[in-house]
Structures are given as structure tokens and as C-alpha cells.
Amino acid sequence: TKGLQMSEVTKYYAEGSNRIAALDHVSISVEPGEFVAVVGPSGSGKSTFLSIAGALLKASEGDIKLNGYNISTLTAKELSNIRLQEIGFIMQSSNLVPYLNVLDQLLIVKRMSGKVKREDKEFATKLLEELGLGSKLKSLPEELSGGEKQRTAIARALINNPNIINPNIILADEPTASLDTKRAHEVVSLIAQEVKSRQKAAIMVTHDERMLEYCDKVYRMEDGKLLLAESSRSVVTHG
Ligand code: ADP
Ligand code: ADP
Prior knowledge:
Belongs to the ABC transporter superfamily. InterPro entries: AAA+_ATPase, ABC_transporter-like_ATP-bd, MacB-like_ATP-bd, P-loop_NTPase. The chain has helices at 46-53, 76-86, 102-113, 118-130, 146-159, 181-197, 232-235, and strands at residues 4-12, 21-30, 35-39, 61-66, 69-70, 87-90, 169-173, 201-205, 217-222, 225-228. By secondary structure, it is an alpha/beta fold. Strands 6-7-8-3-9-10 form a six-stranded mixed sheet. Strands 2-1-4-5 form a four-stranded antiparallel sheet, with helices on one face. The relative contact order is 0.20. The mean pLDDT is 86. The site of one adenosine-5'-diphosphate has 12 residues, from helix 1.
């Protein structure tokens, strides 16, 4: 099965009698071509959920499948390969490499694993232009605004793969946090477009209600429990 499946996933941060269940029997299935939003108050478990979905953090209980791989049975090496090949992370802090220019941020994985072809460069350039970074290809992170850094990180997540292009699963943590309204819509609609045209499974944690209209489903995290909210189309009225 492609996409992401979690079954009865629980995460305890501390063992013993006063342990906290940051996630409490969470089950969810995100199919290829599906764009899911997770909303909920601070401390409800959203970051924990995303970290487990991205195989950055181990669950205490439950099963997780990423694009058909049962991640609890994999070695650390296999896990890191899955992360690299299957998952595009868009995190709050953009984690750009300080000494690489914008274009090279996108090509670094490809460079490390072989040769960068002209079409790789063209694809990366086109994506950056779509995100309004056409004039920043040679800029270093320190020369970028917060929003430009975020957009660079998003572009990288969309193509972060040794074969360039196409991790199957996109995990986004507040991708619009540092963007103005216009850019926020551009970025999330770009993610939505990728999800549909390339059949990716995507999860976006967000506080931004305006972005829910791009999502197929909205879940709410409450005290570690993940609940399906109404369809986003009925939550948000188009203006
Ligand atoms: P979010 O609520 O946006 O998911 P995170 O869980 O990613 O935030 O937290 C990022 C950092 O910011 C954490 O150190 C968290 O403790 C802090 N933080 C997030 N929201 C708040 C808040 N409302 N008040 C205080 N600290 C917060
Ligand atoms: P959110 O992203 O919704 O803000 P988190 O997943 O960050 O929520 O946190 C969920 C719960 O787990 C909170 O009660 C938080 O204090 C706790 N928690 C998060 N990270 C840790 C940690 N590393 N150690 C102990 N408790 C943690």
C-alpha cells in the first residue's frame, strides 16, 4: 500500500506512573493524492505526530507504514534511506545549509549521490521561479528574508530525492508561518498541486485556517487524540 498508514500509535515521553501520552492511540491513513491538514492547540501532540510520521521519532506502541514499508521492522540505516527517498520535510525552521546558495540547496542530495544533469538544474530553477525565487538562485541563506528561506526549504522538500523530484510523502509543519498572505496561498497551492499531479500523500500541520481550503480532510489533535473534523470545504467559505 502506498501513502502513510498509522494504526493505534501511542507515544509516551517518560516511562513510569506519571508518563505523558503525547499521542494516544492515533490511527490515520493518507492515500496518494490526498492532502490532509492537522490543526489543534499548542501542546496537543502535532509535532510529535509529524515526527513519528516522518520516522524521526519512534512510537511507543502501534504500527506505521510509509509507502508500504513497516518502519518498526527497519534498521537505522534503512530508516534513513526511507527518509531520504520517500519523505519531503517542510519544517518550521528551514535548516538550510549556510554555505550553499539557493539553487545548490536543492541540488545537494543529487550532487552527493552522483552527477547533476542539466535537466535537474532546469527543474530546480523552474520550481524556484514558481516560488518567486528566480532572482535569488545564487543567494546564500543569510541574504534571504524569513519567507524566502521558507520557500527555499519548501522547494527543497518537493524535490529532495537522489533521483531528483518526488518523495512520495510530504510532511509540512506550519509551512506558512513566516509568509504573507499572497505567498502563503502560493506555497500551499503549490503543495496541493504537487499532491494531485504527482500523487503524493501530504500532511500539513497548520494554525492558518485560510489554508484548509486546499486540503481534502482536516483532523484535529486534542490531548494526543486525532479526530476527523468536518470536510475542509464545509469549514471554509470561499470569498
Ligand atoms: P506549535 O504549537 O506551533 O505546533 P511547536 O510544538 O512546534 O509549536 O513548538 C515550537 C516551540 O514553540 C516549542 O518550543 C514550543 O514549546 C513553543 N511554543 C509553541 N507554541 C507556544 C505557545 N503558544 N506558547 C509558548 N510556547 C509555545
Ligand atoms: P504540539 O506540536 O501540538 O505543540 P507536541 O507534540 O510538541 O505538541 O507536544 C505534545 C506533548 O508532549 C506536550 O505535552 C509536550 O509538553 C510533550 N512533549 C513534547 N516533546 C517532549 C519531550 N521531548 N519530552 C517530554 N515531553 C515532551
